[in-house]
From TrEMBL:
Record lineage: Bacteria, Pseudomonadati, Pseudomonadota, Betaproteobacteria, Burkholderiales
Pfam assignment, any one: HTH_31
Protein name, per record: XRE family transcriptional regulator
Source species of the chain: Acidovorax kalamii
Single Gene Ontology MF annotation: DNA binding
InterPro entries: Cro/C1-type_HTH, Lambda_DNA-bd_dom_sf
Domain HTH cro/C1-type stretches: 23-55
Family annotation (Gene3D superfamilies): lambda repressor-like DNA-binding domains (1.10.260.40)
Length: 168
């Protein structure tokens, strides 16, 4: 078994810079502004900028909040371990800062009247689901979309009795 290289300040800085670049790439891929992302993570825009640059002086909590706001997960592993490439994190109960229509086929079909954007706020997505509950096909809905709908209902719905999943 190969011995892992010792952690040096240079190695840690390089790792944080790489993680910061991944965070920035994810934010850009989700088409989120720095301000919106910072608000969702509960950090300032300046702190988000420092995270994206990979500055080691930012608290671990700020890093983790930013990762969570972007739907990312931080995993630690030993130097000799290789992270599982296909392993997906458990996103049960997770709500993204913006809901991409392309990832949720039934939401995309229900949001046919929405023009000029590829993403919705969680409140907008829940509103579309609730107004069009009669058109939902829960058997055909992918598991990840059902999980999103349930998370939105639990977090944002004022009246749990009118949940779309209960109507089916």
């Amino acid at each position: 078994m190969p011995t892992p290289s010792p952690a040096t300040p240079e190695n840690c800085t390089a790792l944080l810079q790489a993680l910061g670049a991944q965070i920035r790439s994810q934010r850009k891929a989700l088409r989120l502004s720095a301000t919106v992302t910072a608000e969702a993570a509960g950090v300032s825009r300046v702190t988000l900028h420092r995270i994206e640059k990979g500055e080691p002086s930012v608290t671990m909590g700020a890093w983790c909040n930013t990762l969570a706001a972007l739907g990312m997960v931080l995993q630690a592993h030993g130097g000799s371990e290789v992270p599982l490439a296909g392993a997906a994190p458990d996103l049960t109960g997770w709500i993204p800062a913006r809901v991409p229509l392309a990832d949720y086929p039934q939401l995309r079909a229900l949001a046919w009247q929405v023009h000029g954007t590829d993403t919705l706020t969680p409140a907008e997505a829940l509103g579309i689901y609730e107004r069009n509950a009669r058109h939902l096909d829960m058997q055909a809905m992918p598991a990840h979309e059902q999980a999103l709908l349930e998370a939105l209902q639990l977090a944002l719905s004022p009246n749990v009795a009118t949940r779309a999943t209960d109507a089916v």
